[in-house]
Structure formats: C-alpha cells, structure tokens
Specification:
three-stranded antiparallel beta sheet, 10 helices
Length: 401
C-alpha cells in the first residue's frame, strides 16, 4: 500500500463509528519506513490528524494548555514528537540508557544524546499542499508545467500568516514589529500564526523535533512530503527550501538545510467546497481512540488539555532530561556539553533556550527570509511561553501513554 492509502485506511478505521468527526478538509499523517522501502512489510503509520483552523486569541493559554495551531500537518508533527518522547521513555526506564534497544526507532550516541536510526525514514503525507507559499500558486497541478512561468512575481516566496477563526493566508506586514502582544490580542487584534508552508520550511532547516527535544535528540528531518493534491514541484520546492537557499548562512552542526523529496499521491484528492469543520482529529500510535480538539479553544471538547499541548510536552521533557544523557550542543564557535539548571520553577521559554544550536539555526532561518526580502517572521505573544511545568508528579505511564 502507498503512504496515502495507509493514512486514509487508518483514518477511516479510526472514524468508522464517528460520522460527525470523520468530516474533514485536510488529512495528514506520519509514516515511518524502514530501509527506504515504502511498499515493504516494515511500514508504520504513527500519526493521523485533520484540521484547518487556529486557536482564537481570547483562548490563548498562559499555562501552555491550548494547541495554538490545529492545521493537520502541524498536529501531525506534534504527534510525531509524542512518538519520539515515547521512544526516549523506553531508554529512560531501561537499566542502561546508553545501550541500544533493538526495537526502538532511535539509538544512543557515543558522546551523549540520541538520534533517529539510519534505516528509519520519516514521511509526511498531506492531502493537499501546505497553506501559504506552497499552495496559493498551485491551483492546477495537472495543467501547469514544472517550471514557474512568473518567477519574478513579487508575491513569490513571501512569508504568510494564517488568521484566527478563518481559512487562507495573508502576506506578513513589512514592519519591524513582528512580536504580537498579549494585551493587544486581548483587546481585539487578530492572532496571527505562520503558514504551514513557512513552518515546513523551518522543519527542513531545524528538524521536526523542536527546541525541547533538541537537548536530547539530533535533528529529525522529513525524508519525503507526499501530497494528495496541488503538488507543483517548482512552487513546493521553493516554499520548502528554494526561497532561502541563496540567503541562508552556515548552520551549526548537525543542522543543515534539508531538501525533502516531493511526491504526488497515486490518486488525487477531490476538492471539497464544504465549510471546514472547527475541530481537529489527532491520533498517535497506541492511542485506542483519537483526540478531538476544538480548534477555537485549542482544547478537547471536554475542556481538558490535549496530549499535544505545550504543557504535556514540557512535562515529558522534564522527566527525560533528569534520566538520560544529554546531546552535546553546538554554539557559534564550538560544541559544549550542556548542563541543566534547577528544573523547579524553570519556565518553558527558558527550557527551549537550553538548545543553543537549535536556537542559532532557527535565527539563521529567520534572518535568511529577511535578507531575501521575503518578510519578517511573526512571533506569538511572549507570555505564551512564560509558564512552569504543572505535571511534575504525573504518572509517567500516563504521561508517555
């Protein structure tokens, strides 16, 4: 079966008794292949997600309990992070965390930390091109040539943002003020979120694992992006890496700009003119049932936080960094062995800064967009990451379930 068929089959199986939440506009999934044999026996679907909406500004959480971006591919990436945390948990509970667990997707490194095993590849399937630069110029993938007919059009490559409670994207404003404010959003300013094309470009630069896991794990890059519709090779490759190739300065090792493979699904997704639902379905391997996230509030329909929220990720990270050897970190000039500060009272934002190589690579990416005159990266209000871990006493079996 193809990666598209595997993800669709898993979604249909999960939602066969839930007609209401089986409605979707965009479907995404993470498929792991082994020894680069996508059609072989060793293939695993580890995440299936849907969604096209972002949290409403009034529901931002200052405790990290809301999922800000419920677009399918963004939720799929967070579900992958859950999977990676589970893999690391196997090492944390073993007698020797530096000894390889043969069944694991990751392996310990001699100098500390872990890496995705060389024979494991990450494939991202999305039923349509990512919103933003990768989609707006690709409405007719079957009739347009591979080359871009208008390479000098000013809008090409521009950073774009999603808007709360709506669909589609708008170009970023050309201003020096790129940090949104908490009180501004609370007073009615629309909360802006970077487009999926822009986030995917970041993943090709700094990896899918994020800043927290970067303290334990080498960058995890997608090997392939498979699209169910609107794949235009010139537009998609530009959106993911081409638009910054000429302006991106050297990244600290082991980070590097990753040119992901592009593939069109065997059967094209049919465009649905129906209104997109305001929820996201999120399933990760071993879950008995998927989570249903209200995209407006960023929480489950019960009001409880999702397992994909920052607070849950932070708790998993805090458990693991106390028990596992940390990955040496690259700085501007050298590689250093990280030291942990006092974790009690540590803020989420402070924890992310403990991976200087990741932060430097991310900053170089932002500078590359600015240097290429493609806009400035818009950041969420600073208060969103100023929270402590509230789940330090949680049962690890539930935390890593």
């Amino acid at each position: 079966m193809t990666r598209q068929e595997l993800v669709n089959e898993k979604f249909n199986d999960l939602m066969k008794d839930d007609i209401v939440h089986s409605k979707r506009k965009v479907l995404a999934g993470i498929v792991l292949t082994y020894n680069n044999r996508p059609e072989g026996a060793k293939v695993r679907v580890i995440a299936v997600t849907t969604g096209t909406k972002c949290v409403s500004g009034e529901h931002m959480s200052e405790r990290g309990r809301a999922v800000n971006d419920c677009h399918a591919e963004v939720c799929a990436r967070r579900a992958l992070q859950r999977h990676l945390y589970r893999q690391l948990y196997q090492y944390a509970r073993s007698a020797d965390p530096t000894k390889l667990i043969p069944t694991s997707d990751i392996e310990p490194l001699p100098g500390g930390g872990y890496a995705l095993r060389k024979h494991v590849q990450v494939h991202l399937y999305v039923s349509t091109a990512p919103c933003g630069d990768g989609r707006i110029f690709s409405p007719h993938e079957t009739s347009e040539p591979a080359l871009d007919r208008h390479p000098n059009r000013l809008a090409r490559g521009q950073l774009r943002t999603k808007i709360e409670s709506g669909e589609g994207t708008i170009p970023v404003k050309n201003s020096s003020n790129t940090v949104q404010t908490w009180d501004g959003v609370m007073q009615g300013e629309r909360l802006l979120t970077m487009s999926c094309s822009d986030k995917a470009a970041r993943w090709c630069c700094v990896g899918l694992q994020g800043a927290l896991l970067a303290l334990l794990l080498r960058p995890v890059y997608p090997r392939a992006l498979v699209l169910g519709s609107l794949l235009h090779p010139a537009h998609t490759s530009r959106a993911l890496y081409g638009r910054i190739e000429g302006s991106l300065t050297a990244l600290p090792p082991p980070y590097a700009l990753h040119r992901v493979m592009l593939a069109r699904a065997a059967s094209a997704e049919v465009r649905s003119p129906a209104r997109a639902p305001s929820f996201s379905v999120a399933w990760c391997e071993n879950d008995t049932v998927p989570e249903i996230i209200n995209a407006t509030t960023g929480k489950l329909e019960s009001g409880q936080p999702s397992l994909l929220c920052k607070q849950s990720m932070f708790a998993r990270w805090q458990y693991l960094v106390k028990r596992l050897p940390l990955l040496p970190q690259s700085t501007e000039c050298t590689t250093v062995t990280p030291t942990l500060p006092q974790l009690d009272g540590l803020l989420y934002q402070e924890a992310k800064q403990l991976s200087p190589g990741y932060q430097l690579a991310k900053q170089r990416l932002i500078e590359a967009f600015d240097k290429a005159k493609l806009g400035k990266w818009v950041k969420k209000p600073l208060e969103q990451d100023q929270f402590i871990c509230e789940l330090t006493d949680a049962d690890p079996e539930l935390l890593f379930a």
